[in-house]
Design brief:
CATH architecture: Sandwich
Structural class: alpha+beta
Shape: elongated
Order of helices and strands: HEEEEEEEE
Number of domains: 1
Radius of gyration: 23 Å
Mean pLDDT: 85
Strand order of the largest sheet: 1-8-3-6
Number of strands: 8
Largest sheet: 4 strands, antiparallel
Bound molecules: calcium ion
CATH class: Mainly Beta
């Protein structure tokens, strides 16, 4: 019984392989907008009572026009004792720096397009603390970054 099920499955897999190959061999190729996409997700919650900083960095090579799409959730309380926490996102490439900073408690989506190619370093930094006297969890952020590069404009 198992063999009867296996044989058609193998035949289907072979056929699927043929179809996929035939598809890519098409001589008339349509050049479409195919961006190269990089994702980076970063998040942190400050459970410390005294202020603390947190950061992540990563390198990225970008080729043509790049659009960075950001989905950002930030939560920062007004501390009686310390400076208010903050979130900072920076892209650094040679003498070029783009950065965004906020200390709001909000959800925001935005994008930024830049005509720079080369090796970038992306810095995600934040500082914050937790107020032990309230029921609210500590300062926090969640950042979803999506880089789409190679866009024809
Ligand atoms: Ca708290």
């Amino acid at each position: 019984m198992n063999q009867l099920k296996t044989i058609p499955l193998i035949a289907m897999l072979m056929l699927a392989g043929c179809l996929a190959t035939a598809d890519t061999d098409t001589s008339k190729r349509v050049v479409e907008y195919e961006p190269v996409v990089y994702y980076n997700n970063s998040s942190y919650q400050f459970d410390n009572v005294a202020p603390m900083s947190y950061g992540e960095s990563f390198d990225l090579t970008l080729n043509e026009t790049t659009t960075l799409y950001v989905e950002l959730y930030t939560r920062f309380h007004d501390s009686l004792v310390w400076d208010k926490g903050m979130f900072n996102l920076s892209l650094v490439h040679d003498n070029y720096t783009w950065s965004f900073e906020t200390n709001e408690t909000t959800i925001q989506e935005f994008n930024h397009t830049f005509n720079q190619s080369g090796n970038f370093t992306v810095h995600v930094r934040a500082s914050g603390s937790d107020d032990p006297a309230d029921d609210i969890p500590g300062d926090a952020y969640i950042a979803y970054l999506r880089f789409e590069t190679g866009k024809q404009e």
